[in-house]
Write a structure and sequence with these properties.
CATH class: Alpha Beta
Shape: globular
Radius of gyration: 17 Å
Number of domains: 1
Strand order of the largest sheet: 3-4-2-5-1-6-7
Distance between the termini: 40 Å
CATH superfamily: P-loop containing nucleotide triphosphate hydrolases
CATH topology: Rossmann fold
Order of helices and strands: EHEHEEHHEHEHEH
Largest sheet: 7 strands, mixed
Number of helices: 7
CATH architecture: 3-Layer(aba) Sandwich
């Protein structure tokens, strides 16, 4: 599945990591959390693997061997391993091959894509995967923008699997808080 934000400020990398951790605890298969956003340094910041994986997948026989294993069932794949560095790596054929490699190396994959309002990356990847999950930021995402993104994805024959509301707080009333 591909996870993408409607707004640029949503913490999608953190959500992807959490989904990967939960999956790894509850399934017997290999789980890959794949950072696909080259222009956003969230992989190193959120996943805490700065400097650990700076190489691309050249010389590795799989994405999993080029990834950072954080538990016996969970791997983190940096964008340089997903996209590679060759000039032809951004072609549709190359991307289809890479997604096929993801399916071969992992039983479950969570791909973090660039915000859907910023690029078509989520639509392209979502078309090749099971679908897209949209991340909506509480008090920031406008309903009209979210609906437009959803309609755009559906018009491109991308399955929208659901949405996650991020940043929502549920304040405890002060009278109840004092009793705690």
């Amino acid at each position: 599945m591909v996870v993408t934000a409607v707004d640029e400020d949503a913490d999608v990398a953190g959500i992807c990591l959490h989904v990967g951790e939960v999956l790894a605890q509850h399934v017997d298969g290999r789980v890959g959390v794949i950072e696909t956003t080259l222009e956003m340094p969230e992989f190193e910041d959120v996943f805490g693997v700065k400097g650990v994986i700076a190489a691309n997948r050249e010389g590795f026989n799989s994405l999993r061997s080029a990834a950072h294993q954080i538990s016996n069932r969970l791997w983190l794949v940096p964008p340089t391993s997903f996209w590679g560095t060759g000039a032809d790596d951004s072609s549709v054929t190359s991307l289809e091959t890479t997604v096929g490699q993801v399916r071969h190396d992992f039983d479950y994959a969570v791909l973090h894509a660039s915000p859907a309002t910023k690029s078509s990356e989520a639509a392209v990847l979502g078309h090749m995967c099971d679908g897209v999950i949209l991340v909506l930021e509480a008090h920031a995402t406008h309903r009209v923008v979210a609906q437009k993104v959803k309609e755009t994805l559906q018009a491109a024959n991308v399955r929208v699997l659901g949405a996650v509301l991020s940043g929502r707080t549920f304040p405890i009333p002060e009278s109840i808080y004092r009793k705690l």
